[in-house]
Amino acid sequence: MTTALSINGAAVTIRPFARDDAAGVARFAEHLPEHDLLFLGRDIKHARVIAAWVDAIAAGEIESLVAIAGDRIVATDGNIADLNFPCLVSCELMLVCHPDPHGV
After folding, report:
1. Long-range pairs, 14-18, Cβ under 8 A, ≥24
2. 80 to each of 69, 71, 85, 91, how far by Cα in Å?
3. pLDDT digits 0-9 by tens, 10-46
4. Which one of 23, 45, 76, 95 is most buried, counting C-beta atoms within 10 A?
5. What is the C-alpha end-to-end distance of the chain, expressed in Å?
6. What domain range is 90 assigned to?
């Protein structure tokens, strides 16, 4: 599933997070304000955290998307369901966007 749209006149592609996106996510995370990172369960500035994220996607534990403008990732999300919970009608959705929306 890939979706193309225009945000602030810039072409943005939204698609599933792939293993090859890890370096781009690391560059994206470098630009996030510390107070935005406080809302995440893990510090995505660390390569080992991103690697674990990629592994969890591959294992089907998390579904994640990336938004790409030009050659850079400008947003990520993580859709996390508790597979041990008897009812899968709820999950946790985390969305993190680049701090400069005009830079998209």
Report:
1. 14/65, 14/66, 14/67, 14/68, 15/65, 15/66, 15/68, 16/63, 16/64, 16/65, 16/66, 17/53, 17/54, 17/57, 17/64, 17/65, 17/66, 17/76
2. 25, 27, 12, 6
3. 888 999 999 999 999 999 888 888 888 787 778 888 9
4. 76
5. 21
6. 3-103
pTM, two decimals, is 0.79
- Rounded to 5°, the CA angle 35-79-34 comes to 10
Count: domains in the chain: 1
Give the residue from 63, 79, 73 showing the smallest Cα distance to 97: 73
Residue count of the chain, please give it. 104
